[in-house]
Design goal:
Helix content: over 70%
CATH architecture of the largest domain: Up-down Bundle
CATH superfamily of the largest domain: NADH-ubiquinone/plastoquinone oxidoreductase chain 6, subunit NuoJ
CATH topology of the largest domain: Four Helix Bundle (Hemerythrin (Met), subunit A)
Shape: elongated
Structural class: mainly alpha
Strand content: under 5%
Distance between the termini: 106 Å
Number of strands: 0
Order of helices and strands: HHHHHHHHHH
Length: 199
Amino acid sequence: MIEQIVFYCFAAMLIFSAGMVVSMRNPVVSVLFLVLSFFSCAAIWLLLQAEFLAIVLILVYVGAVMVLFLFVVMMLDINMTVLREGFVKFLPVGIGVAVLMLISMGLIVGSSQFDIAAVASVAQHDPGYSNTKELGLALYTNYLYPFEIAGIILLVAIIAAISLTMRKPRTHKTPKPEKQVSVKRKDRVRLVKMKAEKE
């Protein structure tokens, strides 16, 4: 009974924070709500006795990836007025896409795999059971190709983030050493003889 109450509390927090990620207009606040979503999801994984995934989610995503995302968002210099103008305009399209995604997920997954009766009881393991070993066997045997494809997608995302943060070329000119060495006095200095204005 206590586990179900804790699960519903963290699930409600996860749904709320995920909704705030896509609805907030300030991207920095959205990133912070995404961190809260990761913490809520890690707590749910702890309830499912997936300690390794919960710790990896907090250490890797919250500790490294989200900090990187936060720096990238802060370096992009996003114009907030343009975002506020387009938010209301594309809101009906976004709601429609969200409804279609929910319907498609419900049709594909269905209640046969995610029914309360199917996930109510978590299999209890002995103290010598290793989540890391079982996860490694699953990743490198049955899910090797999806794992490699996910790595390629993350590499493309990193390259895209770096290219987005690239600034335009600087407007001021930098001096070239080879031209400074080969310069002559007559090309740079001009002596002008003129009469004195005051006697």
